[in-house]
Amino acid sequence: MELTAELSAPCAPDELFGWIDDLSRYPDWMGLVHSATPVDTADADGPPAWDVELRARLGPFARSKRLTMVRTMCDPGRAVKFERREFDGRQHGAWELEARVEPVGSASLMEMRLYYGGSLWTAGLMERALHDEINRSRDRLVRVIAENRL
Questions:
Q1: Is the pLDDT of residue 121 over 60?
Q2: Is the CB of residue 66 less than 8 Å from the CB of residue 87?
Q3: Whole-model pTM?
């Protein structure tokens, strides 16, 4: 499953990027991310990692998933990528989250791509619920940015 969404935000790219390069900030604006806590990896010089709990609801049904995400690429103010990387030695379904930000006049345009290579979250209705939550998250992110300027 691959979902792509765009967001136009009335702020500079650096300000928008400050909300997307650290997964700890995602629960403030993305309903899909219930929690994201930094984890201590064995390699202190390695990329930052987070213990992430994802939740999605469809009527009376809900799905929840815990995974470790690592920031595998960061071009400050422009692009960031997170990938699932578990440290238990087992194979797991791929999760990737990538975002790119570019200036558009005095505003910013962000394109975010979510890729999931497993089967738990891909049933048609659950995929629709994920897409709907991503759409709601756009408005929350713009509102959170505005509120934190005050």
A1: no
A2: no
A3: 0.88
